[in-house]
Write a structure and sequence with these properties.
- The chain is globular.
- β7 and β8 form a beta hairpin.
- The C terminus is likely disordered.
- The strands form 3 sheets. A 7-stranded mixed sheet has the order 6-7-8-5-9-10-11, sandwiched between helices. Strands 2-1-3-4 form a 4-stranded antiparallel sheet. It has a two-stranded antiparallel ribbon with strand order 12-13.
- The protein contains 12 helices and 13 strands.
């Protein structure tokens, strides 16, 4: 598999394991020297492996559970800076750890308890306390791929799969072999649409002025950069994807956002309802933002569209005055899990497919020539 930090190929090496001591210093671990099987399993849960795949990359360690459950499911957030994707991803992971997957028969466990505790301390708790998160420095390839967090997800049949979350700075993507390798292995993408940049609505003008941004009818540069690098073998890209209209609180009185934003969190997946939301969001984007913002939907065979808000309101002076109240942040991830079979739905993963599969025929969408694609 690919190391989530240096993006080079890595595999489990029992001779390169370490654990931390009481002073939080790494010391070598020889699992063969632990006779008690239960104790060995517990020690391995907190052990890490030093990655030496790229000798020029800063020293880094991979949690052993990440390397022992097969190929991880990689989920990457795509969008330019200031689109709110980091806040959305933080709230998405927080919703998982709050038990949001339990109604679907899924259980979670941290890959690295230490790493997860740091994520909660540095990202989840400050955001929940109403603080705007700083733009975090990138860890990865020239600012392209930043590894954020990983979880072990157990499905209703007891199968365990690591899920790794990345933040893609697509606008900074450089054309290198390592970047191409990473995109070849990506499993799911979340494209985050910022209405401030996408919607030329008058009531958003004051925000554009304050943030010093303009409406971009050409779409998000990060979308195009990543889509152009993904491998394509047919008319559509075969990676699973969700397009999320983020910061939807800015459009809370705009139909059909008002209809979806106030819905309670999902406790079951209804493909018909997901198609209905996809249709509504597609029409809204097509009407106000333009076709360029729908490029992921046009290019990817399995793609759903969603409404979400990571904070429920706007920041003022580095804080959210009413606190950060997330709305519908888990639904895009649930859709991606269904596309990869972690959540079972009638018709299977292909129920979300476009093009050859007929299940999405209830969602007519206009193409650039004014015709319809089903």
């Amino acid at each position: 598999m690919l190391c989530p930090y240096c993006l080079e190929t890595i595999r489990l090496d029992l001779s390169a394991l370490f654990v931390t001591d009481s002073r939080m210093q790494y010391r070598p671990l020889d699992p063969a020297g632990i006779g008690n099987a239960l104790r060995r399993q517990d020690v391995m849960r907190g052990a890490v492996q030093k990655c030496t795949a790229d000798p020029d990359f800063p020293e880094h360690y991979i949690p052993v559970p990440y390397l022992t459950y097969g190929r991880p499911l990689t989920v990457a957030m795509v969008g330019q800076s200031a689109t709110g994707k980091s806040h959305l991803l933080t709230q998405m992971i927080a919703a998982v750890t709050d038990g949001g997957l339990e109604p679907f028969g899924l259980k979670w466990q941290s890959v690295s308890p230490e790493q997860h505790a740091r994520f909660v301390r540095e990202r989840v708790q400050p955001l929940r306390n109403g603080r705007v998160l700083d733009h975090t420095g990138t860890v990865g390839l020239d600012g392209f791929a930043r590894f954020v967090e990983s979880l072990l997800i157990t499905d209703p049949h007891g199968r365990v799969r690591p899920v790794a979350f990345f933040d893609l700075g697509g606008e900074d993507l450089v054309r290198t072999d390592a970047a191409l390798r990473f995109l070849l292995g990506i499993d799911a993408l979340v494209f985050v649409v910022d209405p401030v940049m996408a919607f030329p609505l008058p009531h958003l003008d004051h925000l554009r002025e304050r943030l010093m941004v303009e409406v971009n009818r050409d779409g998000d540069l990060a979308f195009g950069t990543v889509l152009d690098r993904l491998p394509k073998t047919g008319p559509y890209l075969d990676v699973a994807a969700a397009v999320v209209l983020g910061k939807a609180d800015l459009l809370r009185f705009e139909p059909p956002v008002d209809r979806w934003l106030d819905r309670p969190p999902a406790t079951s997946l209804d493909p018909a309802l997901i198609r209905e939301e996809s249709r509504d969001v597609h029409r809204l984007l097509h009407r106000h933002a333009g076709q360029a913002w729908l490029r992921p939907f046009d290019a990817i065979r399995r793609c759903t569209l969603h409404v979400a808000s990571a904070t429920g309101g706007q920041e003022d002076g580095g804080r959210y005055p009413a606190g950060a109240g997330p709305r519908r942040v888990l639904e895009p991830l649930l859709s991606l899990f269904a596309m990869h079979g972690l959540i079972e739905v009638p018709g299977g993963a292909e129920t979300f497919a476009l093009g050859a599969a007929p299940a999405f025929e209830t969602v007519p969408v206009e193409d650039a020539r004014g015709g319809e694609r089903t």
